[in-house]
Amino acid sequence: MPLVGCGQAPGPAVFDVTQGPEGNSANVEVLVAAPAAVGMEALGGGELQNVGGCLGADGSVIVWPHGTQVLEQDPLLVDIPGYGSFRIGDRVRVGGGYVLEHSSDDVEPGPYEIAGSIVPASCARFDVFLANAGA
C-alpha cells in the first residue's frame, strides 16, 4: 500500500488506520520512512500504542523503516522489515535513534519532516524515534 507516484522513486508511505477502541488505535497513522542506506543503532521501542494519533511505543512516536506494511486494519497488524508482525499492545524492540526530543514545552509543535515522512503536529508533540530495518 505504499504511496508511489507514476515515474517517481518509491518514497515514504503513510497508512491511515481507523479502528475501534479495543485496539486503542482509533485514527492512528503509521509513519514510514523513505529508503535509507544507513541509520542509527540505539535500541528503541516498547509497547505499541497510539501516541498522539501515530503508531509509536512507550510514549514516543516511531517513524517505521521503509517497507513497513499494514497487514490488517482491524485489529491493526503491522509488519516491520527484519522484526516481524505486531499488534497494538505487543512489545517491539527496534534499532534506530531519537531524531526529535522535547526537553521543554518551548519546542514548536510541528509538523516536521523526518526521513521523508511528515510527522503531524499532533504526533510531533512527543519524542520521535527513527527506526531502521532489522537485519
What assembly state would you assign to the polypeptide chains in this entry? single chain
What's the helical proportion of residues?
under 10%
Strand content: 35-45%
Order of helices and strands: EEEEEEEEEEEHE
Coarse shape: globular
Counted up, domains total: 1
Number of strands: 12
Arithmetic mean of pLDDT? 81
Please report the distance between the alpha carbons of the first and last residues: 22 Å
From the helix content, strand content and strand pairing, which structural class follows? mainly beta
Main beta sheet, described? Answer: 5 strands, mixed, barrel
The number of helical runs is 1
Strand order across the biggest sheet?
Answer: 3-4-5-12-9
Rg measurement, Å: 14 Å
Identify low-pLDDT runs.
1-12, 17-25
Write up this protein.
By secondary structure, the protein is mainly beta. It has one domain. 3% of the residues lie in helices and 44% in strands. It contains 1 helix and 12 strands. The strands form 4 sheets. It has a 5-stranded mixed β-barrel. Strands 6-7-8 form a 3-stranded antiparallel sheet, with no helix packed on it. The protein has a two-stranded antiparallel ribbon with strand order 1-2. It is globular, with a radius of gyration of 14 Å. The chain starts with 13 loop residues before the first strand and ends with a strand. Residues 1-12 and 17-25 have low confidence and may be disordered.
